Amino acid sequence: MINRDALAYRPNVGIILFNDKGEIFMGRRADLAEGIWQFPQGGIDEGESPETAVWREMKEEIGTNKAVMLGKRDGWLLYDLPDHLIGKALGGQYRGQKQQWFLFRFTGQDSDIKLDTFDEVEFTTWRWVPPQDILGGQYNLGFKKEVYERLLPDVLALYQASSNI
After folding, report:
1. Residue 128 in contact with residue 17, Cβ under 8 Å?
2. CA 28 to chain centre
3. What tens digit of pLDDT does each residue of 123-165 get?
4. Which residue has better confidence, 106 or 163?
5. CA gap 20, 4 in Å, rounded
6. DSSP β-bridge partners for residue 123
7. Which of 39, 63, 32, 68 is nearest to 163 (CA)?
8. What pTM was estimated for this model as a whole?
9. What sign has the CA pseudo-torsion 16, 90, 141, 146?
10. Would you give the distance in Å from CA 55 to the centre of its chain?
11. Whose CA, among 25, 39, 89, 112, lies 20 to 30 Å from 63?
């Protein structure tokens, strides 16, 4: 049995990408049979800043980084993996992730989003989702639902503030 408390949190960045209608990019995970939907996110490489990582992850996961950064949520958001994923997910080395979340406005066309740009495909499909629908039960968020419940009020307030500038 793996001692969860002995494991670290993996440094990670998350991407909240808004279109010009105020909808948010969500993708359905390619590696989970349950049809889990999530925001793009990914690990911070050794020696990499969160700001560099977030641009790299955007390009890797959705095939483009045609976007303007609107801001960043203050602090790290931590989450633990469910018990059945300890020792399996995230290379078996972590208890969960500590995330810095960044907000972006998409400046490209929908045709710029290409999920199969890299060998490791993260999402099978994607869509723009009105913020009020994300937690409304239409999308299976898996264990990340609790993370998104904590995250969304903060990023929506940041988005509102950036829209009023």
Report:
1. no
2. 12
3. 999 999 999 999 999 999 999 999 999 999 999 999 999 877 5
4. 106
5. 42
6. 29
7. 68
8. 0.94
9. negative
10. 12
11. 89
8 A C-beta contact, residue 53 and residue 42: yes
Three-state SS sequence of the chain: CCCHHHCEEEEEEEEEEECCCCCEEEEEECCCCCCEEECCEEECCCCCCHHHHHHHHHHHHHCCCCEEEEEECCCCEEEECCHHHCCCHHHHCEEEEEEEEEEEEECCCHHHCCCCCCCCCCEEEEEEECHHHHCCCCCECHHHHHHHHHHHHHHHHHHHHHHCC
Q: Which of 62, 76, 88 is nearest to 7 (CA)?
A: 88
pLDDT value of residue 165: 54
Tokens, residue 145? 């639902």
State which amino acid sits at residue 4. R
Q: Hey, what are 90's tokens?
A: 């995230």
